[in-house]
Amino acid sequence: MAAEDATSSKKRVAVLATDLDGTLIPLQGDRANRQDLAILSDAFKQNDITLLFVTGRHFESVLGAMGEYALPEPEWVICDVGTSIYFKTDAEGYRLVREFHDYQAEITGGQSASQIRELFAEIAGLRFQEDEKQGEFKLSFYSIASELSVRVAQIDAVLAAHGLPYSVVQSVDPFNNDGLIDVLPRGISKAAALNWWSEHCGRKKEEIVFAGDSGNDLAALTAGFRSILVGNADRQLAKQVHDAHVQSSTVELLYLAQGHATSGVLEGLRWFESSLGDERT
Fold first, then answer.
1. What is the CB-side half-sphere exposure of residue 264 using CA atoms within 13 A?
2. Cα–Cα distance, 10 to 179 (Å, whole number)
3. Secondary structure (DSSP) of 152-183
4. How far apart are CA 92 and CA 111, in angstroms?
5. For residue 263, what are the domain limits?
6. Are strands 254-256 and 226-229 parallel, antiparallel or unpaired?
7. For residue 243, what are the CA distances in angstroms to 42, 254, 272?
8. Which of 204, 193, 258 is nearest to 226 (CA)?
9. Looking at 185, 203, 221, which one is the last position of a domain?
10. CA angle 167-171-172, nearest 5°?
11. pLDDT per residue over 8-66, tens digit each?
12. What is the distance between the alpha carbons of residues 254 and 272, in angstroms, rounded to a whole number?
């Protein structure tokens, strides 16, 4: 279902901020996705669109995905579910943005995620994610998807009992149905990181289009940016996103794509930036 208001803002798209898995990355065996990734890569260059990855992956995994799927190189990477920001330099590759790191250190009072890890060790049904998926300001767990709300409530209770400046983001892995839980500095999310980045770089919200597909994209999909929800996203999430835009009278900012993953991103960009045209062969 497309955005409901045909008068949706057609201002130039200067920035595409996109999730990776289930969104920009082509789905396995999907030839149209591969074709559309090539079209997108050309469009970024020809239309001078700044590419920004916004992903739950850790930074090394982002680099691996870029090689594995031949993704176009972004100028910026927001990773670790919004707790790390990297920018591309000419000489040194990607470098961590220290100002954003320091901003989170202020929120947490210097109390790292590893220092609170043991507080959650006794919660049944929680499994710590692999060490490389943890971060200085990110503590990540697996859970049975049907038990997500219970586990989140238990984690929230621990955070409240200890007065910890952290909060919880949850989602479901669309490929294996694992419940994913991230404990992040209070107020931090993909949306918060993207907002911080836009202010840091002097970018206006109306210049930015965000694309996503999963629960940890919810905040960014409803944060006031023009947004694309790709067609393979969970229908419950699609309803949440749509209802949130109806509530805030911003339906013109939302495009619910029919195309899946990469093709949905291209479809949405063409909705907001008609000059991209239809070039698939």
1. 31
2. 37
3. HHHHHHHHHHTT-SEEEEEEE-TTT-EEEEEE
4. 30
5. 15-101+188-276
6. parallel
7. 34, 11, 20
8. 204
9. 185
10. 155
11. 456 789 999 999 999 999 999 999 999 999 999 999 999 999 999 999 999 999 999 99
12. 10
Which residue has tokens 């918060």?
192
Query: Token pair of 77, please?
Result: 């990477």
Integer angstrom CA distances of residue 72 from 33, 39, 56, 209: 14, 11, 18, 17
Residues 149 and 83 in one domain: no
Which residue matches tokens 């939302």?
A: 254
- Give residue-wise pLDDT tens across range 155-214: 999 999 999 999 999 998 878 889 999 999 999 999 999 999 999 999 999 999 999 999
User: Is position 222 within any domain?
Assistant: yes
* pTM score: 0.92
CA angle 40, 44, 49 (to 5 degrees): 135
Tell whether 122 is covered by a domain: yes
Q: What are phi and psi of 90, to 5 degrees?
A: -70, -35
